[in-house]
Amino acid sequence: NIIRLAQACRRRITTKRSCDSRSPVKVVGNGRSTFSMHLEQLRGWVEHHRSLPKQGSTRVHDERYLARFLNDQQQAFANGALAEAREQQLRSVPGMAGRLHAWGELRKVQPSFEAQVGTLMEWVRQHGRLPKYGVGDAHERRLGAFLNHQRAHLECAEPDEEKLALLLRVSGIQKQFRAWRNPRTSFEVRLAELKTWLQESGRLPSYGATDERERQLTTFLRKQQNLISQGSLSQDRKEQLASVNGLGELLDRWELRVGAAKKC
Q: According to a count of CB atoms within 10 Å of the terminal CB, is the N or C end of the chain lower?
């Protein structure tokens, strides 16, 4: 049963204890903040500022964070992965009905969900594997991004049964579903450790530090910067990094450097 498969693959809540914290660090599935929490933050922002947050704004950290959330929803919408229930919840936010209409106009010139799944099936048939996110030529990257967004179907209480049925026709997709089912905690635990470090020290960890804990956190940050430069850091993890005070500005600087390097 497709619905049971989706429910089995939905995120699980696990609690892990950080080695540097007395209180447990709660990890929700792969650590992403819940959609409903983001939605309420967005609603509060709009009620206070009377406008939707803007991408690339230099005003405040919260605006950039919420703008990234909206961008993620737009990408899910474009890739046929925004559930009807979530779309309706977004519409309830002032200004979002018009934004969703604009997204719909853009989607009219894009291939349909069915066509994209068909392209994915053909690519898998030719290559004998699923495309990887952020890897390969432009065609594989597009398909990898499309596939990556489909995990959203597994997070909904009422997934789109027809879309899931179509996805399940792709060779290897059930194995991918199982991989999505297993929570990835190493990133989230390290991020929680970094957040604790920032709260305790009031600064970012330094390169060349002699303290083992600080060196580990520096290595973690360097890895995230490298992933951004390669275009391989997912939007979900960008949002998690940006949600930590002090990291939003650092993330912006990394992305500006990548943009400048591409222009050279």
A: C
